[in-house]
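Researcher: Sequence of Aminoglycoside phosphotransferase domain-containing protein follows. Predict its structure.
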Amino acid sequence: MLEITADMLKKYLKEAFGSETVLVDYGDIGSLDKQGMKGFGYGKPLLVRFEVDGKQQETVISIMKGDNYGHQFYWDRAAILMFQYETSASLSRHVKPMGIGYINRSGEMRPLQDPGEFFILNEKLEGYDYFHDLDRIRKGRFLDQDKDNAAQLALWLAEIHSSKKEDPHLYTRRIRDLIGSSECIMGLVDEAFDHPCEFFSRERFINLEKKLIDWRWKLAKYTHRLCAVHGDFHPWNVLIGGPDGFSVLDRSRGEWGEAAGDLSCMATNYILFGIYGGGDFSEDFRTLYMTYFDKYLEQTGDIEVLKVLAPFFVFRGLVIASPVWYPDHPVEVRNSLLRFIENVLEDEVFDYAGFERYMR
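Model: Prediction complete. Tokens:
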């Protein structure tokens, strides 16, 4: 837990309430050991007395502490505090917020003035979106460099996934989010498909979710697999052709997770492009897909990943089968993808070399 000092308070109060603000006093207001029968607290409040233009005021400053209930990271906690700042004043009888701020990495308290939306600035990278290469291949022009690119993507994943972390609670959270988050499987089921859905019945959705609960419990024994991840490794988030080779964009859903999430994401897109021509699966995309998988498994030796891939393929399959995200799919493409996500859950170990059979 961060310690707030008098100097930190003085600087913050002057920036937040004006240069003439004077710190009068501060100290603990209660403690985590004095909450009656409540055995779990989210933070230790600090009572602060200060003067603005000779008028004394009081405020209570609270900092959330990290826990295993979805608050492991400072951005988790920031979301909760921003919600409270934005909505507390509109609820009758609720304590009214006086400000919101953050403590920077130099230990300074800095106010946020009337936040409404946030933004980020990133460097501009050279290159073009990888999906353009996949479109070219789909149209019949396969280059030797394409196979090498697939291998390089796999080697990069192997490199980042080699960084491991021991945190069973965080791994469990990532699996819980995979299935239940509004951004992931259940959110996609609810929002990325019409209900009733003309090409995937209510019963099929129900059966899919029931099987995923079984998989959630299967994955509970794999918490040792927590590793560094990208989180959204698809062809629209990869730039090809820069001076240093490929680059990646838009890291998502946390710094740590299951390697199967990244591995399945790009693989699912190879599958999508490979079935787009109609008839048998494209040999060119089978070459990309097998190069990608073989190189990853060869580099990592992680055969165990094949035991945990299935629910991650469901997530990515729902994305690319959705008429919201991909409205122009031919009927058979969409049907093949949906058969894939149903059938892949039936095997204890993903048959990566025989993946076509999951679409039959």
